């Protein structure tokens, strides 16, 4: 597993907190501390009555990607960073931002014109 803070690999040692049950699922908070950077990592886990389980990273809301080079202009880096931030909440939104980033690079740097 990779730490979303420091991006180092680690073996998670978790603590589990039962939050309760609603009509559809059983909710738990799973916490970990990265042994490298000593920071918390928290997931909200829903276990549905159908047997399916979903996990949502709730802290940190971090990029979880290798930092972008400082040589990349801000107008491109901004879309990339935003795409990284939303990927766990909405992969489709992340894909749209990634496409926008690629489109801007192609138009501005490679001088590719839109087709009519």
Give the count of helical stretches: 2
CATH architecture of the largest domain: Single Sheet
Secondary structure tally: strands: 4
Mean pLDDT: 88
Q: Which stretches of 5+ consecutive residues score pLDDT under 50?
A: none
Explained architecture:
This protein has 2 helices and 4 strands. By secondary structure, the protein is an alpha+beta fold. The protein folds into 2 domains: 1-62, N-terminal domain of TfIIb (Single Sheet); 63-111, no CATH class. A hairpin with a 4-residue loop joins strand 3 (40-48) and strand 4. Helix 1 (74-86) packs antiparallel against helix 2. The mean pLDDT is 88.
Summarize the structure.
The protein is α+β, with helices and mostly antiparallel strands and 116 residues long.
Q: What attributes does this structure have?
A:
116 residues; alpha+beta; N-terminal domain of TfIIb; 2 domains; four-stranded antiparallel β-sheet; 4 strands
Strands, helices and their partners?
Layout: E1 14-21, E2 25-33, E3 40-48, E4 53-59, H1 74-86, H2 91-108
Antiparallel strand pairs: 1-2, 2-3, 3-4
Helix pairs in contact: 1-2
């Amino acid at each position: 597993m990779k730490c979303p803070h420091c991006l180092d690999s680690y073996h998670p040692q978790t603590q589990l907190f039962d939050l309760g049950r609603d009509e559809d699922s059983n909710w738990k908070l799973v916490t970990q501390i990265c042994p490298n950077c000593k920071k918390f990592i928290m997931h909200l886990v829903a276990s549905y009555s159908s047997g399916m389980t979903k996990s949502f990273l709730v802290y940190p809301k971090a990029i979880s990607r290798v930092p972008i080079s400082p040589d990349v202009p801000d107008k491109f880096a901004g879309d990339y960073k935003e795409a990284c931030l939303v990927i766990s909440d909405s992969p489709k939104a992340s894909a749209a931002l990634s496409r926008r980033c690629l489109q801007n690079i192609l138009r501005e740097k490679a001088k590719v014109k839109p087709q009519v």
